[in-house]
Design goal:
Blueprint: E1 13-18, H1 25-39, E2 46-50, H2 68-94, E3 99-103, H3 107-119, E4 126-129, H4 132-142, E5 148-152, H5 157-164, E6 171-175, H6 177-181, H7 183-188, E7 192-196, E8 210-214
Parallel strand pairs: 1-5, 1-6, 2-3, 2-5, 3-4
Antiparallel strand pairs: 7-8
GO molecular function: acid-amino acid ligase activity
Length: about 220
Amino acid sequence: MSEIPPQDTHDHITVFDASDPSVDDATVRALMRELVVGARGRGGRTWLVMAQVPVDGVPAASDSTASDADTDTERVAENARALAHDAIGRQAVRLAVDKVIAVGAGRTARALHQGAVMEGSWGDEAALAETAESATALLTDQLDGGDLVLMAGEGTRPVLEALGHHGGLRIRTRPARDLESGDGVHVLGTQTVGIQTDGAQADDGHADGTQTGAI
């Protein structure tokens, strides 16, 4: 395991991957709190990059043509999903998450963005990226060393993949469970850092292109 000088510990970007389709709105709320707590005293910015997530207690969206009764049920569920995403945007602002990017062209993405704006985000603190490509472009332009990013929602997977192949960014990807278990705070406390290489074998033997080192 190679030694990384303390002055280099803020050069990388840490991304917490919560893109699994089982991650719901309640989980995102908890992860945001852990992200902000873990970021204290580090100096980097916090980001929420989020596509639609399931909402606890609300049926998943249906693409099928159904009866009027089923349509009414879906309309109620759609409203509930929008309200839940609006609430996440508002909570992100109250928690002082620095940047919120809503990914998608649907109602839930617009609700997430609107919630952040209505709660007080202004300028480029909140953005609506209708496609994964536009979200990736925004991130590659604005991410900086020391930033901490929570990626939530299955729709962010293409963004994660694109960032992982971007040669100009030094990224360390961690599973979201590291935040839930408290291990994420350990990582954010600079006990472990990662530097993205060009996909070659890292010095510590990791074949995924990530080099780790203890401080």
